[in-house]
Amino acid sequence: MANLQAAVKKFSSDLAAKVETFVNDIAVLEVRTYSTPYDQVQILVANHPDVEGAAKDGKIMLRAYTEISLDGDMNICVPQAADGLVDNQLWKIHNQTVEQAMANRAKMIKAVGDAAAAALEALKKAGE
Question: What is the pLDDT of residue 107?
């Protein structure tokens, strides 16, 4: 029984450390939407580019940006077309990606919360 308690305590401790890292990682959700000329897409994908490096080299262009903090604060950069109007097609793609990223973050938060709750329950049972 002592081995089980020690194992559960170690698991709980490891989980707590991972939860802390996870919370730091999800504190800010960032979505960047880039564009590139058609003839560059295949080259970029094949080489698994460093996005920041590709942007600095001019191979891709940041076209829209959204940053959402856990507390709901947001920074958004809306894409403009050459005529100064919002590029609606690009904005629609970007917003769909933001929605998907937010849904993924919510699922991850739930999964980590469920795991933490299960670990606490196991720790409680092991202590009995």
Answer: 92
